[in-house]
Structure to design on (230 residues):
C-alpha cells in the first residue's frame, strides 16, 4: 500500500534555528516520485521540490535542503536559519509511475505545521 | 501567467442545494485533479482526468461528479451537498512525465 507519514504534527522553533521535517513513505513500486509542498497561512499550495526514486543525491536550494534515503524510505526536509516567513504547513507527497510512465495521483502526508517565532 | 483558477474561493450554502466549483488552467495540461483537504487527513484525491472526456475516481469520489468537455476546464459538481463535504478544495493540473502538479488557490466550502 502507498502511504506517506509525517509524524511531526507541529514544530515550533525560534528564528535562526535549523529545523528538519521528517517524511517516511511506503510503496511497492521501484519507480516513484517524491514531492514537498508548502502551504502558507494564505492557503495556497506551493511546490518546493520533486525527486525521482533513481536519484538519491541530496539537494540544496538556498536555506532549504532535502535528504533522500531509499534505505530508510525517508525524504526529509531541512530549513537552515529559519525565518518567520517559513511558518507554514509543509506536505510531503508520493506519486507512483504506472506502466505508461505517469500517474496522476499524489498521496499526501498529513502535514507538519511549522511555527517560527521571532 | 501560468495559473490554475478556481471559483468561487469561498462559499457557504445549505444541504441539498446543488453547486459547482469551476477550475480552469491556461497551461494546456492534459492532467487535472480535484483534492479535498481536511484537518489531520492531508489532501485526498476526489477525481482526476487524463484528457478531454477521460475521467476516473480518486480515493474519495462519493457525492461528487466531474466533467471534462474542454481541456482547460474541470468543474467539480456537488449534486446534493451534505455537511460532511465541508472542506477546503483544490484543483490541480500538470503536464505529462510526472511533472509537479500546479494547484489553484483553493475553495473553502461550508455546507450547513
Amino acid at each position: 500500500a502507498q502511504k506517506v507519514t509525517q509524524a511531526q504534527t507541529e514544530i515550533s522553533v525560534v528564528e535562526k534555528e535549523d529545523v528538519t521535517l521528517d517524511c517516511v513513505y511506503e510503496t511497492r513500486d521501484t519507480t516513484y516520485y517524491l514531492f514537498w509542498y508548502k502551504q502558507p497561512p494564505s492557503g495556497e499550495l506551493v511546490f518546493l521540490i520533486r525527486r525521482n526514486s533513481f536519484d538519491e543525491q541530496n539537494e540544496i536550494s538556498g536555506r532549504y535542503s532535502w535528504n533522500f534515503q531509499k534505505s530508510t524510505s525517508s525524504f526529509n526536509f531541512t530549513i537552515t536559519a529559519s525565518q518567520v516567513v517559513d511558518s507554514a504547513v509543509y506536505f510531503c507527497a508520493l506519486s507512483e509511475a504506472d506502466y505508461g510512465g505517469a500517474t496522476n495521483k499524489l498521496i499526501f502526508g498529513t502535514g507538519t505545521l511549522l511555527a517560527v517565532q521571532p | 501567467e501560468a495559473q490554475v483558477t478556481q471559483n468561487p474561493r469561498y462559499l457557504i450554502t445549505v444541504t441539498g442545494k446543488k453547486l459547482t466549483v469551476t477550475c480552469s488552467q491556461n497551461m494546456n495540461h492534459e492532467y487535472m485533479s480535484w483534492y479535498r483537504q481536511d484537518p489531520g487527513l492531508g489532501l485526498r484525491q476526489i477525481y482526476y482526468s487524463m484528457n478531454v472526456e477521460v475521467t476516473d475516481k480518486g480515493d474519495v469520489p462519493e457525492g461528487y461528479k466531474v466533467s471534462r468537455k474542454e481541456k482547460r476546464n474541470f468543474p467539480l459538481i456537488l449534486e446534493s451537498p451534505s455537511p460532511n463535504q465541508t472542506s477546503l478544495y483544490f484543483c490541480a493540473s500538470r503536464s505529462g512525465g510526472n511533472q509537479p502538479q500546479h494547484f489553484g488557490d483553493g475553495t473553502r466550502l461550508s455546507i450547513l
